[in-house]
Amino acid sequence: MKERKKESILMTSLRLFSKNGFHDTTIPLIAKEMKMSVGNIYNYFPSKNNLAKCAIKFASSILASTLRKINDKDISTKEKIYEFVVAYYNIIEISPEIIEYFLRVYLSNRSLFSQEGDGGFELARAFIDEVERLFEDGVKKREFREQKFFVAFSVFIGTLGGMTFLHGERVLKNRPINCAKEIADAIYRSLKV
Amino acid sequence: MKERKKESILMTSLRLFSKNGFHDTTIPLIAKEMKMSVGNIYNYFPSKNNLAKCAIKFASSILASTLRKINDKDISTKEKIYEFVVAYYNIIEISPEIIEYFLRVYLSNRSLFSQEGDGGFELARAFIDEVERLFEDGVKKREFREQKFFVAFSVFIGTLGGMTFLHGERVLKNRPINCAKEIADAIYRSLKV
Amino acid sequence: MKERKKESILMTSLRLFSKNGFHDTTIPLIAKEMKMSVGNIYNYFPSKNNLAKCAIKFASSILASTLRKINDKDISTKEKIYEFVVAYYNIIEISPEIIEYFLRVYLSNRSLFSQEGDGGFELARAFIDEVERLFEDGVKKREFREQKFFVAFSVFIGTLGGMTFLHGERVLKNRPINCAKEIADAIYRSLKV
Amino acid sequence: MKERKKESILMTSLRLFSKNGFHDTTIPLIAKEMKMSVGNIYNYFPSKNNLAKCAIKFASSILASTLRKINDKDISTKEKIYEFVVAYYNIIEISPEIIEYFLRVYLSNRSLFSQEGDGGFELARAFIDEVERLFEDGVKKREFREQKFFVAFSVFIGTLGGMTFLHGERVLKNRPINCAKEIADAIYRSLKV
DNA sequence: TATGAATGAGGCTTCATTCAT
DNA sequence: TATGAATGAAGCCTCATTCAT
Question: Which long-range contacts (CB under 8 A, 24 or more apart) does B23-29 make?
């Protein structure tokens, strides 16, 4: 199945991009990892850039759907925060490349992603929308204070990202998932009324 | 003066690296921007990598000294947080490259920096130490709760970084500095007892 | 056939290296001579240095097998000396690059070859071993006097090399092959009992 | 004294060229070794090539004058051979660069030297003439057989060069000078009537 | 679909040489 | 004479992409 293979290439690329960065991941390397020929990669993706763009959409959609499932639950927003923190660090443990990709590729290769709409920001739109829904939900339930969305967003995602970075730098003694409660609480304190 | 020129190259590189990322900033581009010959760059810095490393040290030392000055003041830690947020966004307004550099180059080119100590993490040590001092100060004064350093660090720096990222992506309607109070408060809520 | 082309590149490189020396033979020049693109050369050899090393192995093996065939004959060592001198100068007439390579590249670019074993000396091992066999054979047959191997080696190979050098410098009126008898005799006088 | 300094540069260059080869010896390196500025080197020698040419003349004249002094002695040619072998290996022990220069620079950078006359061969003319005188002397005294000059030359100088090469490759257990008698004998056997 | 040899532009870096001081 | 910053051409090598098979 062509679609199967395409996804497989995508996953492999995501992993390699995350590990080595965009520029240090060559098409020959991806091909080798896939046990495919270089030329054949181009039968599935028209360019390396396109591969990177598809990867961000893919990673973003995983995060978005993870958060969506939690959003859909009938639990307090405090619990939602906690659950997302846990889910997030689970992803980091199981498929760190999904998160790392944002840090290693998306953040530093702006030009790659910036041609459609808001500098490629749209690529992560699905996820951002879900975060927004979480906050609105919290406000509606009188759990969260009203505040500017992007400030709250930064506290939430910035904190998670900060821990991720520190984890990647190997300066943490414990795995972030073991601090999930603490992290969720820290975030929650900032958001709650 | 040779030292002057060296610093000038450093600032230019910092700016270009921040704007385009490490790989998309070529030595010829830096040279052109400096109105120097390509070869002459190498009379000042032995390699492009070294240039990037010097840049991180430079950027890090600016942030560290900014925070140190605030730390040294005789004000509450709440105020210190606020002052640092303001200072931070002032830097972003005046020399965004200093901050962006961390986001665009440091975060995503680990291998570039990793040979000395903790994967290049040492390069930012001065700054991190200062953040630690701020937190310890807060705890001592009974303003901050006791909590794991790296969690608090992530809330603090992650939040600032998150806003910076959003600012860089041009999704913010207001300049971050106009939300300084709000951001500082959001951070503070998370840190305070 | 990939192997065919690889050998063809090797021969071309050998020739150019011999003619111009290692440093004055550029990859673009080799590519041009091969009517290939520069990049494609690197599909066959990972570096210019490697090309030079492969060339020395190639040249060395030709000399070694030439001498081996003669060694295997059932003739006096005096005749063997003569036959090798003839064979040697035949090579010089037909493929001078094989011999010149030693003079122009191997002798003078020690650092290029020195990492494995005795400073790259190992690369010529097959040939040297064969020379040693010739001498031992001569001693066993009571034709050659017993003497230090490396002294005898220098007389033998040094003399051939000296003529080669003079030939290359175009100071000889006659082709060395026309003096083969005389050269072989001169060498023989030094080796015989 | 300008002439003094010029000679000093020449000696330094000779040494560096011999050690690293022509291409791996940079003018900045020579300057550094001389504790002079790069530009000032050019006040003494118009180009790097010229420096190399002057070096060969210099090295050649030392060899020539060494041999001339021996030639002028009133001793047998057999003894002359021996004395020259000793003198030659003394040079190698004390100033190996003089000999190495021929092997490392002269042999492999033909293009450097080949513009005046016989491919730069003229540069070594003084020395060659002296060798010729030695042989003619030997023939006149009925010590040496009559044979083609270049064959005899190759035996003589080729053998010395062969040992030098092996010495440089560090494959010899003993210093060549300790085999001087043996080497001189080996050469002599080839030359004598 | 699949292969992988081939292309060629472009990046980093070096260095002989010049020149303003 | 002396300095060393500056120039710029050129070399090695990489790699996204194409194309003949």
Answer: B23/A21, B23/A22, B23/A23, B23/A109, B24/A109, B24/A111
